[in-house]
Amino acid sequence: MKRREFITLLGGAVAWPLAARAQQAMPVVGFLGAGSPGPFVPQTAVFRQGLAEAGYVEGRNVAIEYRWAEGQYDQLPALAAEFVRRQVAVIVAFPIPAAVAAKAATTAIPIVFNVAGDPVKLGLVGSLARPGGNATGVNSFLAELGAKHLGLLRELLPTATLVGLLVNPTNENIEGVTKDVVAAAATLGVQIDIVRASDSREIEAAFATLVRNKVNALLIGSDVFFSSRRVQLATLTARHAIPAVSNVREFAEVGGLMSYGTDLTEVFRQGSSRRAFITLLGAAAAWPLAARAQQPAKLPLVGVLVSASSPHPFADAFWRGLHALGYSEGQNIKVEFRYTDGRSDRAAEFAEELVRLDVDVIVAHFTPAVTAAIEATRTTPIVMAPAGAPLQMGIIDSLARPGGNVTGLSAMDAEIGGKRLQVLRELIPSLSRVAVLATTPTTTGYSRPFVEGLRLAATRAGLSLEPILIGGPSELRSAFAAIAKAEAQAVIVQPFFDPQHVII
Q: Residue 70: pLDDT above 80?
């Protein structure tokens, strides 16, 4: 089972102690995304914040339905048409392909767009001063940065004469991006080698072409699909030693050489001017809505304890599980989130706080949160999502009859250590020494079975295992110094450290 599906199922499991209540009619916002939901969790979170600041709270006086094309832009017209049939109050479209599809689907339903190209040239509005029609929104002008990116590459590589340009052929703005880059290249005396890709396999083929043509550097065109595939792109540029620049900061954070433009995390989460722009977009979606807030006098309260930092994909998947069972925030349920930022001491503190709030159920995400919740209460129902085997960890009495106040699911991460080692050996045939980065047993009870499972698998595989145990994220840098000193060829990281993936 995929991690996201597992978390969604967990969201549904929270309904266990709750009694369903009748839902009320309310206006619906249709959110049409061209990419995948995972990479844009911060975006949707701040979008909802913008609506809330305008007086519209999801589940209380507005409903939001999401449709994602998963990078398959040819699916967008059908998804937009679905919203039209659904008679949503407004369509929020992001980015260009979604906005164009929404505009083509309706001239009556209001559209709020977020695009990286000129909305006038794209036919979305009549003019910037007087949009006219049924569409309004904002332009981030990312597509206009192509010439700037080329200039940065030339400053870094003064002798570069051939630069690759990766574009998505299904993007309506491809002509504008290509034209600007080619024009800038002519003034710099640089030739442009244009390659195209609209899925992961085509990205691999595009890099094969770039390598064969011996490009000196690569410019990654502005496209939401490329943003979602930034790990693959960074990996390929490193493998083939091709200096590359992207318009999203996260490309550099996952190993790419350079970025200039949007920071997909910070701009939607930490109060930058770009976040303000997306918050404004969320508020703009309230423009056609006229519903009034209605809320039952007493709602069941769910406490969610997450062993990670906010925002986290768990939250959105959790909400989908609840919504699938008919629960909506503010309408027939209330939810209190607590994020521990990976600190076990905060898990205990927040678990006790949720008990004092007299929540109807506690959802505990990952082992530290599960342990803290169990120590805090023996009466409040707990829905768990530990990474290890709950029976071995003493969380439940048996899988068939858990007993006590605990139920839920386990990712069983500790039981797939052998598979992780197998994958590493396929990647590194000469593999002989592997480090495992984990917490001390006093930090998380899950650490011991995680390490021991890997030790047994390593012994069977004829590999040497070097455990590196630390108290928490603050010791990561010294841990990696120890890994280097041990001359490990690879490292397996305990899921406890997932929130620190950028540092790792």
A: yes
Nearest-angstrom CA–CA distance, 244 and 15: 48
Q: Which helix (H) or strand (E) holds 51?
A: helix 41-53
- For 457-484, letters b (16+ CB in 10 Å) and e give bbeeeebebbebbbebbeebeebbebbe
**Nearest alpha carbon to residue 207 among 197, 71, 226, 177:** 197
Indicate the SS3 state at residue 493: strand
The encoded tokens of residue 13 equal 């499991």
Helix (H) or strand (E) holding 164: strand 162-167
Q: How far is CA 77 from CA 100, 104, 294, in A?
A: 9, 8, 34
| 491 vs 466: CA distance, rounded Å | 9
Q: Are 161 and 191 in contact (CB under 8 A)?
A: yes
Q: Are 254 and 231 in contact (CB under 8 A)?
A: yes
Instruction: Find out whether 232 and 10 touch, Cβ atoms under 8 Å.
Output: no
For the chain, percent helix, then strand, then coil, each to nearest 5?
45, 20, 40
Measure the CA dihedral 423/427/432/435, to 10°.
-60
Neighbours of 132 (CB within 10 A): 9
The Cα 151–Cα 155 span in angstroms is 6
Walk across the sheet containing 258-262 and list its strands. Answer: 191-196, 162-167, 217-220, 244-248, 258-262
Residue 474's contacts (CB-CB under 8 Å, 6 or more residues apart) are: none
**How does pLDDT run across 128-146, given as a tens digit for each residue?**
666 778 887 776 655 557 7
| Coil, helix or strand at residue 258 | strand
Place of tokens 């109060």: 271
Q: What percent of the chain has pLDDT over 90?
A: 20
| H helices, E strands: number in the chain | 18, 18
The 10s digit of each residue's pLDDT in 152-169 is 888 888 899 999 999 988
- 3-class SS letters over 193-208: EEEECCCHHHHHHHHH
SS3 101: helix
The tens digit of pLDDT for each residue in 340-360 reads 876 767 888 999 999 998 888
Distance separating alpha carbons of residues 246 and 251, to the nearest angstrom: 7
Among residues 115, 156, 342, the alpha carbon closest in space to that of 260 is found at: 156
Sheet containing strand 135-139, edge to edge, reads 63-68, 28-33, 90-94, 111-115, 135-139
